[in-house]
UniProtKB/TrEMBL annotation:
GO BP annotations, alphabetical order: transmembrane transport
ABC transmembrane type-1 domain location: 62-252
Protein name: ABC transporter, permease protein
SUPFAM superfamilies per record: MetI-like
Amino acid sequence: MKEKRALHRFAITLMFLYLFMPLIATFLYSIATDWYDTVLPKGLTLSWYVKLFQDVRFVAALGRTLFACSVAVGLNIAVMVVSLFIVSLYLPKLERFLQAFAMLPYAIPGVIGAIGLIKVYSSGPLAISGTVWLLIGAYFVVILPYTYQGTRNSMRTVDLPQLVSAAELLGASKPKAFFKVVLPNILPGIMVSALLSFSVLFGEFVLTNLLVGGYYETVQIYLMRRMRESGHLSSAVVISYYLFVFCLSWIALKLGQNFKNGNFDNLRGKKYELPHYR
């Protein structure tokens, strides 16, 4: 029995080493002074990271990426939460159509979607091709499946119709029940969906490159250009990008675990109870 466990651990360790070896090599190259004809780098330095974060173009590209992703995620969450709230309470028969609509981005490849958007919005009254607004609209569509699933699961977990009915029995109107009762209870699930969506958008390259290219330089476009100039600097960009996405994913995972276990006290500060409105 012990031999089997040891064999399993050894196999798992080898698998993780195989998966993380490219990332480890990229990190070593990002801190190497010179690494061409030796097994290991000849020297180590953080000058590439210093140069990266002192580059005005990188900081500007990071700011553009954060702006586009934040606006798209914020708008998507607002629209999806309100839509699911209305459909769940008043139009439950339309939920399957809303689900089918939200899952459509899974069936549309990024290249085909980008080309279609360029053709539609390159002329006419709404000629926004090559602008950040078209990119935000494309981002909005891309993350529909993620925000829909997370928000719907949150509303089903709290039993939305029963929760609203209980709030109305205590004297709350529908809008007040939504903002004071429903929203605080589904907030952890919304936060998980938002963080996961943000991570997905932060790594999106195909849509960004085809829709805006050099007109709106994001981190992905900046990385592509830096790859042609310096391998050390591009490796530093990759590691920084990976750490950022890893932090977002880790936060989303922890929030998801708290949401699954019902431990919301540390997220809202205190346990939420139905208030008396009379």
